[in-house]
Design brief:
- This protein has 2 helices and 8 strands.
- The chain is α+β, with helices and mostly antiparallel strands.
- The radius of gyration is 17 Å and the shape is globular.
- Keywords: Lipoprotein, Signal.
- This is Lipoprotein with Yx(FWY)xxD motif.
Amino acid sequence: MRFLPLVTAFSIAAAASAFAAPAVQTVETDKGKVVAAENGMTLYTYKKDEKGESYCYDKCAINWPPYLGDASAKADGDYTLVERKDGKKQWALKGMPLYFWVKDKKKGDATGDGVGKVWDAARP
């Protein structure tokens, strides 16, 4: 039974990582440094949202897919979660919900920055 403490410690560490903030990174774009998801795609905020509240649904959410967390996601530091109307959890940075832009195709694209004067690339 000498392996039990090691297995238990590993299980606790794995469980703790499942509840951490989203995997994000800082990416250099032609618009400067932005916050991107783990896949390198730029994340955006919507000026019509309020802290802790998303107003981007239906056609808006088709063009600006929300950055969703899984059911076990927990807020951590500047990264919080907003509950959407369908009950899904959306990541937020300093309370502002985060989105992708369908026209961004690769890491470093930030083509949604400034769209309609209501979308901004999230900044580190």
